[in-house]
Every structure is written in structure tokens, then in C-alpha cells.
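Reviewer 2 asked us to include a model.

Predict the structure of this chain.
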Amino acid sequence: MTKKMKKLCSYILVSIICFSLFCMTGCGFDSVNTDEEIYSALIDATEKLFDYDGNITIKTKIIDWNNGSETSNIQFTYSINPSKKIMYYSLDSEKADCNVKVFNEDGKPYLKVELEVQQGSSAQKNEEYKSFQMEEDAKLLTSFSSYTLFTQQSLDDILQEYTYSFSETKAAYESVYAEQLAERLKTDKTAQAEYKMKTGKTITSIYLEDYSKIVKTTDELSLKGAGLDTLIKKSKITGKNGKISKVFAQRESFFAKNSQTTNTVHKKTTIEMNINYSFDQIGYNKIETTLPEYGVEEITFEKNYKMKFNVGGVTLEKTTSSIYFNTDIAFRSLKSDISVSGSTIAWYEDEAYTRPFDPKNYSFDEFNKIDCVYGKISATDTFVVFGTDYEIKDERSDAYKAVFGPLSSKNFNNEGFTSEQLLATSSKTITLPLPIQEGPYQSFINGNPYDASSNTFKVRRGKVYIIQHVKSITNDHYSIFDFVF
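Predicted model (C-alpha cells):
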């Protein structure tokens, strides 16, 4: 299964509240028959997640085992009805039980939170009611946007992955596994690696399954010591009536110290999700609500904004928070520390600088979907402006991109802009900075390469200079045997 599909089987644990959300919409699967058609239909269903705005209920179970004994069992239900602005979330685990409900009374939205935490042999219970100061808050909590409120992870992070056809994906995994196994066997005669992927169709559903097994020998220097390490992963995604109906994932690890089975450590985690595209009214009604007589405190949620800024080729990612749904204020906060003295930046929607960007023209939802805006930077007459950018260049083969997914987003604190005022002269000779991040990097100033032997440069006022440090990522940076459980 591709990294994209595997992301659908991931889960996030935030404090004691767990929440996973994977739901799809699409046409029926009646005409879907071949491997390529089934795979494409499931990919298409995931893409349509961004536009989904209807009722949905997700029941999830996450279980951990250690040497055959169950160590954790978490079950939770999430259900929303966006049109009525109601929802509920119910979690049941060994450490805590939690119920969250958004409801309406006398035309006004309220939030109820019930929390019961186990402390030794006793349980501490707490119950709170809040009213919404802003109608938009109730709308946000009862829509798909509430996914990020529970998981602290955006849908973009999950779904922005490489997409390949079934045959391309299958061939990629098989070739990478075979190539890396052959290399590993040169130094590790016990190594194993196999991968299987298949699709299927029943009378009522389609599905995609995959299986992976990797075995390696560890030495005394490893955290576990010398022994045999095995990782097995399985997953299955089922689609029904044009939508994803079930998700299953299992991850197992075995460690046999010094290859002795008597010292085997066995860990396993399974995730099962059942998705129903309707609101669970019965579960919602089970959470009773009685507003307190003394009144309810109003609550306003803080909204998180994130955006990329490409300014003259320097790409920066900024975040900010606000309690107001005002895109103009949010944009001003996001870009507040980008410009420097002696510079001006004009903002555009496109990299060619043909469509000026005006945040006032965007709704809250539209603004949140903007991935990047583009800045055209210029320097005033008496200043020279420098921009520093670290770039990660993906030079992996398509097979490695399919197996290992996209590169992680770069985030370097020393990127950005600086400026210097030149009053007495129109030019100045400077020593260009060398990369301080872990390399190797190639360095450029306005596209011209330099290194430690050629890093002196004459700059002129009224000019902008972009310093780039570029690192190439190749297949050699990745191994299927670099797993940790």
C-alpha cells in the first residue's frame, strides 16, 4: 500500500483524548473491476474528503499487546451533524472516559464535557458546560474542521502524498525491497524482506490489502542488544457504496535476543475503524444535558492559521493564532516578521506575480486552504537586502518516492531576510555565509555557486541577494531496515 493509503491507517494520541478520522465520498463501485480501477477508486475517494460536509459517524478501536497480554484498549466514537450544528465524541479507555457534546437549547449552542480519570483505585469525575460566544465556533466544532482540534494534525499533512497507479506502486515496492534485501544480505545473512499488495471485490464492496515483513540482525551496540528483529505490517481498506467503510491496520514486532526464541519480545498494535455516513442520534441522546441554574460561562476557541510564503525564492512557513475569523488580521500577523528595514514586499496569488493577493477577498474556509502566497521583494536605494534559504532537492527515483513518500517539510530557524544600510558608498565587499545545517550542501548567491574558497562578493545598495544552500536527497538516504517499534 502506498504511503498515502498507509496514512489513512495512522492514529494520533493527544493527551488522554484519542481521535482518528478517515472518511471518503464518491460514486458507486459497480463498474470497478480491475486492480487499477479498484486502486484508483480508493485514491479518488480519499481526494474527495476535502469537500465532504455531511453527517458521519466513526467508531474506532485501538488495542496494544505485549507478549500476548493486552496492555491498552481504547475505543471511541465521533459523530457530527453539520447542518444542525450538533456533534458528540465518546472515549472509553483504561485511564479515562470522556464525553463531549455540542447541543442547542433555546436557540443557543452549548458544549458539555464529561471527564472521568482513574487515579489508582478511585476515579475523579468532572463535568463542565460552556456556551459559545461566536456562532462560528459551534460551526467549526461540528464540521470536518474539528478533526484538527482533536488530533492537532491537519488533513493536508495526511493526504498530501505521492499518488501512483496500482502497477507502479506494486512494482516500486517489489523493486525497492529486492534491491535493499540484496544489499543487506552482503553483511546480514539472516535478513528477509517481502511485500505483497492485492485488491479484491465482493458483491457489496472493494478492498485493498498489503503485507510487509522485514527481518534483520542487530548487534550489541543497538538499544536492544544482539538478536533478531522482525517487523510485520498488514492493512486493509474497504470501500462500499462509493465510500470508505472500514480501515484495518496491524503492526507487529518480534525481537529474539541472540536468536533464542525463549527471549522473544512480541509487541502488537491493531486499529479498526468502521465508518457510517449518518449521524448517531442514539449515541448523541445517551449523553444527558442539564444546564446549571447559575449560568454558563462563554467560550471562544482560538483558531490556528498556517501559511507558506515564497519571497523571491525564499520559502518560509508561518503560524499564528486568533480568536476572530478575520483573514486580513490573520494575514498581517502571519507575515509580520518577514519584511526587514529597507525592503518592500508586494503579495501575489501566483509565482509569476500576475494576480495580486488580497486576504479580504477570502472566506475563512478559503483562506485556510491557501497553501502558499508569493512575495515580490525589492530594496530601497540606500539598503542592501539578503535572503537566506535552505532547499532540499529530491533526487530519489520514482520507486523510492512511491515507497517512502514525500520529503519532510523543511523548517530552518535561520532562514529569512536581513538588511544593511549603505550610506557612504554604493557597494561593499562581504564574506558570504556558509551553511550551518548538517550537509553536504551546495551554496549559491543569485544562482551563482560559491564555497569556502570563493565566498567573497561585492554587493550594491538597492539590490536584493538570495543566498541558497541546496542539499540533494538520494536513494542512499533511505532503508526499509531502519525501522523502530
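Residues 361 and 406 are 32 Å apart (CA to CA). The first helix runs from residue 3 to 7. We have added this to the supplementary material.
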